[in-house]
Amino acid sequence: MKCVDDFRLKFNGKEYVPIIIGGMGVDISTPQLALEAARLGGIGHISDAMSLDTADRYFGTHFTRDKTRQYKDFIKIQDKTGIHFDLGAVEESTKLHVGNVMEKKRGDGLIFTNCMEKLTMNASRDTLRVRLKAALDAGIDGITLAAGLHPNSLRLIEDHPRFRDAKLGIIVSSLRALQIFLRRNAKLNRLPDYVVVEGPLAGGHLGFGMDWAKYDLKTIVAEIHQFLKTEELAIPLIAAGGIFTGSDAVSFLENGVAGVQVATRFTIAQESGLPDDVKQEYLKAGEDDIEVNQISPTGYPMRMLKNSPAIAKGLRPNCESYGYILENGKCEYLKSYYRELEQHPDGKNICIKDKTCLCTHMRNYNVWTCGHYTYRLKDTTRQLPDGTYRILGAEHIFRDYQFSKDQQILLPEE
Ligand SMILES: Cc1cc2nc3c(=O)[nH]c(=O)nc-3n(C[C@H](O)[C@H](O)[C@H](O)COP(=O)(O)O)c2cc1C
């Protein structure tokens, strides 16, 4: 019987433990978590979501405060077309975040950044170009293009000196999405270095509709595998979504994937950015406490705990401070908020059920997004006499994935 450690993920002749910790915005996949994955010979992600805010927290900068001051006159206006991100601030904050983690990197693994195309930031092309270039300038090992089809993202950095040396990958949830990406980028003469195939059991936003339960990761992986074979394209495939044990991972690795991307098991790691009391909520959750809903203004369904504080709140939008999902001055949450404000002109007792202010609530860790198997997290650790659960180090979880066999999960010592 094999374990994950019997396999290696190869990039340009170098070998890695085939475990990738997926990006979890906003800063749930912290630098500390990514650094652990790299130290242990695998691959870790940081997230480039809300980089201004993340930089303020880590480095004491004032990007968000400055932006809020600059645009305070928009607070009572629904049309946010006039709010713009300062591209210099986007560049500087990205460089601070990426540069800091790359400086601290030890071990044989790699650190990638997860780049969400759906963070349109009221000027999607310009802000995306700056984010991608700044991450490359600051020495990131690779960029995973996530949440969106990214038809033009590679073109934005084709003139960057690191365009062919950095690892560039894409997340897809269907063969069709991959085909569109490949077709749109055919002229660049640069294939993605890896393709993450994310199935419907993942956390965060899903690349499926509300009929997600009709799909399964193994079938999608097999389809994409066959397509790549037929087209003679040697792109490593990474399977993601619902891979909960080392044995789950082995079953994919034995069927031709080059690695696995996992996240849910690490949400409760010491190094995860979630506050400790929220980690306990994840650990306590039962299967019925998890739902896939449509409250994200991005338009993608999202899986989360039903008791997430972000659900059915009536927060005044914070686009002046954040505004990461604005597109041509609009966001689906703004629409919902102003609809409700008409009913409650005093601004009190507003409760918005159909959408959430994703920026504010993600920033404050109030969207408890999670993978389908979150309800099994309690089986990965020990309960303490006070009823809470022991929080595990990322190394423990990583090693469990790497060495466990026979669907075993290694519990921490008593
Ligand atoms: C809390 C959480 C936040 C996530 N946030 C993001 C994100 O910001 N961008 C992204 O591409 N994927 C995100 N994901 C998806 C993961 O990177 C990963 O591909 C997936 O969850 C793997 O499945 P698993 O959680 O069942 O192991 C998130 C997942 C979780 C659990």
From TrEMBL:
Pfam family, one: NMO
Tagged with keyword Membrane: no
Official protein name in the record: Nitronate monooxygenase
CDD domains attached to this UniProt entry: NPD_like
Annotated source species: Oxalobacter paraformigenes
Single Gene Ontology MF annotation: nitronate monooxygenase activity
Keyword list, A-Z: Flavoprotein, FMN, Oxidoreductase
SUPFAM superfamilies from the UniProt entry: Inosine monophosphate dehydrogenase (IMPDH)
